[in-house]
Description:
- With 309 residues, this protein is of the alpha+beta class.
- The protein is built from seven helices and eleven strands.
- Among the domains are: 7-28 and 85-169, Beta Barrel (Ku70, Chain: A, Domain 2), CATH 2.40.290.10; 261-294.
Amino acid sequence: xxxxxxxxxxxxxxxxxxxxxxxxxxxxxxxxxxxxxxxxxxxxxxxxxxxxxxxxxxxxxxxxxxxxxxxxxxxxxxxxxxxxxxxxxxxxxxxxxxxxxxxxxxxxxxxxxxxxxxxxxxxxxxxxxxxxxxxxxxxxxxxxxxxxxxxxxxxxxxxxxxxxxxxxxxxxxxxxxxxxxxxxxxxxxxxxxxxxxxxxxxxxxxxxxxxxxxxxxxxxxxxxxxxxxxxxxxxxxxxxxxxxxxxxxxxxxxxxxxxxxxxxxxxxxxxxxxxxxxxxxxxxxxxxxxxxxxxxxxxxxxxxxxxxx
Length: 309
């Protein structure tokens, strides 16, 4: 089945204009349930209730209200809101290009594939290639469904992708969140943590390794119920989590579990063993010279040689 575009637009930068179409790039598959009447398994209906009149209200009696302060509303008619809405001019006017790493992922909202028509394919390909070579993404404004969005256009798998973005005042500040700014860590702990990160690092992100296991269990259980099987297999039990008291021990245990601690411990023990060997050699030399130090033993031997001469 061919993909259906959800919107159309035209990318413009400088005097270049590229007609494009937007296609949904993501489709959430979380499990959802409907509320049923337990008696007859019929789906319930939600009614609109007015607590002042103690009555069910028809939708035709509703108006939109914006709460200025608690309990105080101003109302808007559909006509008033239409005048305030942005007009869809389908323009994707690029305002600037920036490196992708300068855009924090917290600003990303929804994702759309950008497709082109045959007549715009050459210009589309040129823009995608130029952005890939320069490692830049484009910031633009786009009106979709009567709402103006800040969007980012980036190269993706040989083509272009569009992401709607949150505005800065929509990002929740971290100022009131405890993020451990005053916590102290040692250099050794940092070294072990970096080694554990290195050991868990893959060269490339492989999304096929990850699945929504809860959704899969629910769907499997639903099919079993349809087939007449009522047995529900529970998911994996939560592993007991002990309170981490010794961070260093926890890091070492993590490395040992992955089989990478033994090599590093041997490397650390080697210099220590060499340092321990030196006192042993000195003690042996002292013992052979009757308890004198190595230097004294050598001096005594030289003195005896001179006397014989």
